[in-house]
Write a structure and sequence with these properties.
Protein name: Dihydrofolate reductase
CATH superfamily: Dihydrofolate Reductase, subunit A
GO molecular function: 5-amino-6-(5-phosphoribosylamino)uracil reductase activity
InterPro entries: DHFR-like_dom_sf, RibDG_C
Number of strands: 9
CATH architecture: 3-Layer(aba) Sandwich
Organism: Actinomadura luteofluorescens
Oligomer: single chain
Distance between the termini: 50 Å
CATH topology: Dihydrofolate Reductase, subunit A
Structural class: alpha/beta
Order of helices and strands: EHEHHEEHEHEEEE
Helix content: 10-25%
CATH class: Alpha Beta
Shape: globular
Radius of gyration: 19 Å
Number of helices: 5
Strand content: 15-25%
Number of domains: 1
């Protein structure tokens, strides 16, 4: 069974709306493109490494439309490696509408998203989810993912759609490797889905080392 890897960019207050440009998702959001001024070579290398081994993309409709308008025209440029990857692998699109699927290798998923995602897992080894915040929230809620690559940027916006925006379910995650910080303060966190649900305890219990009369 293949792995589903979610790649997300978020602020300290976990806003993940429109990181790449002003036109990604502009309705009611004045900070489109907030990620661009904070990019550096370290974060860029981390993001590039995250694509290694990808043999399929799983995208929401809005992200797909942005990618389809950009990546087919980038081969031979500075983004050649990612362009070659994106233009070659199958692109699975989650949409309730009728998207233009003229980008080579594009396939619309059926109405039963959970079933469709499980079929993709049987077909591919490493499926990458990029952007696609609404889709990501569904995958998180349904626990239909294996790994979460999260880049947290050192800004607070106070407005915008967040990674966790209601409807989440209790979930355990395991940190896969030590956090890695870029010079500008961006932190890369790599988590894997773990079994079970979060446990609870009592911080005042004697074995927790609580101070007396605290």
């Amino acid at each position: 069974m293949g792995l589903i890897d979610i790649e997300l960019f978020a602020t300290l207050d976990l806003v993940a709306q429109s990181p790449g440009g002003p036109d990604e998702d502009p309705v009611g959001f004045p900070f489109g493109g907030w990620q661009a001024p904070l990019m550096d070579e370290v974060t860029g290398a981390q993001i590039g490494a995250a694509y290694e081994g990808t043999d399929a993309l799983l995208l929401g409709r809005r992200t797909y439309d942005i990618f389809a308008a950009y990546w087919p025209h980038q081969e031979g440029g500075e983004d050649n490696e990612i362009a070659a990857l994106f233009n070659t692998v199958p692109k699975y699109v989650a949409s309730r509408g009728r998207p233009d699927l003229s980008w080579a290798g594009s396939i619309q998923l059926g109405p039963d998203l959970a079933a469709a995602v499980r079929e993709i897992r049987d077909r591919h080894e490493h499926i990458k989810v990029v952007g696609s915040l609404n889709l990501v929230q569904t995958l998180l809620r349904e626990k239909l993912f294996d790994r979460l690559d999260l880049w947290v940027y050192p800004i607070v916006l106070g407005v915008g759609k967040k990674v966790f925006d209601g409807g989440e379910v209790p979930t355990n995650l395991t940190l896969q490797e030590p956090p890695s910080a870029a010079p500008n303060g961006t932190v890369h966190l790599r988590y894997a889905l773990a079994e079970g649900t979060p446990a609870t305890g009592d911080m005042t219990a004697p074995d927790r080392g609580a101070a007396p009369n605290d």
